[in-house]
Amino acid sequence: MSTATQMLDKMPGEGQSITLSTVLWRIVLLLAIDGFAIWFATRAFGEGFVSLGLVAVLITASINYIILARDMYPLRWMLVGLFFMLMFSVYPIVLTVLVAFTNYGDGHLLTKQQSIEQITNERYVPEGGAAYSWTGYVSPNGDYALWLQNDAGESFFALPGQLLIPASDAQGVGNLDDKGIPETIEGYTRLNAIQVATNQDIQQIQFGSEADGVQIRSAREAAQLQTRFVYDEAADKLVDQQTGAEYLPVVGRWTAADGTELTAGFRENVGLANFARFFQSSAFRGPLTRIILWNFAFAFLSVFLTFALGLAIAYIFNDPSLPGRKIIQSLLLIPYTIPSLITILIWRGLFNNQVGVINRTLTSLFGIAPAWTVDPWLAKLAILIVNLWLGYPYFMLICSGALQSIPKDLYEAATVDGANGWTRFRRITLPLLLVAVGPLLVASFTFNFNNFNLIFLFIEGGPPIAGSPTRAGH
Length: 474
Prior knowledge:
51% helix; alpha+beta; 17 helices; Periplasmic binding protein-like II; 3 domains; four-stranded antiparallel β-sheet; eight-stranded antiparallel β-sheet
């Protein structure tokens, strides 16, 4: 019996008995995972993140199945990796696709219910509503009270849920200071300015009864506030109690008949409207199309140039008879050892239009000073040069290793057949090399397609596209 067969026979998923400790370990692990998932999903659903909650439920169900099912034994080794891949790779991609069909963005970050709650929390002082200056007090039990003073010089003691008590009828009031405010009230401690400024609870409490209720409006004023907006669920509209205006939901905005909009918008599905807007608007279509085309060109040219230079160096130094090749190869790896952040900023200084070493040299030799950061084509050339410096050591390394794996017999046979150096490279070296480094070329293309650091650090996305109605760079 082979070793592989013996290993398969010992796998827990193939008939091996499971110990009590293993069962208990699985139960404890699943209880912890499921408990966290229930808490997380409940919070997600409560905050309106339905898709995130569903993903959490699906992932948790999958984890339970993989751990409990014997035929899923091999997947247990990949469970952690699969979890993070789903949460941080698959979910963001799916969410991005879903968001593309909504109006999600500035002013549309809330759900409709959250928008209604935020708007209906707004208060206003109705006509004839009383306003007071206030001083806060707190009891040892955490109950709050207010001492109110109006412009007529009248003072009141206010407790939540009770009628305002005139100062003359208030019990336990101590000595008044020069502003007519009690220094002490029996059972309460006066709040100082710092306590008032940092206290959020007292601002949410309505003092007094329904008839004369008072709520804090600012750090100095309390007033008889009323709810300004009331939501009519049957008609799906918000009614302004102050003006009588009615606001209906229009593409994620509460909009009145005269076009007035409330600030708290909400997100909703808009179908293909975003895509139609993109294709119909030159402000979006023009700059973005140019940027996407350059993005592909930058990634392709970066891979081609770095691979070509790295392969050329590796091919040259693959000759054992070349003197000092080890030292030279080590020196050529220096750009790869320096953090790209530092290297990019150094190259930015070298390409500076006014004081850069490159322009000073060109001016002294040829009398020219290219505008590297102003001219779009020169800026792209400079970026490719910098990326060539950053990337060629990588391909030099992998090509050096790949060249060692090509059998020397192939070259000897080709030489006997009369093939020259170029023919041997084109017919033998390059095809066999691409088999080994092909996946790395694809990975390099993907990396450069998303290479934000180089573009931002070197030229900050510029130079800007002239005449573009939206902020965009070449």
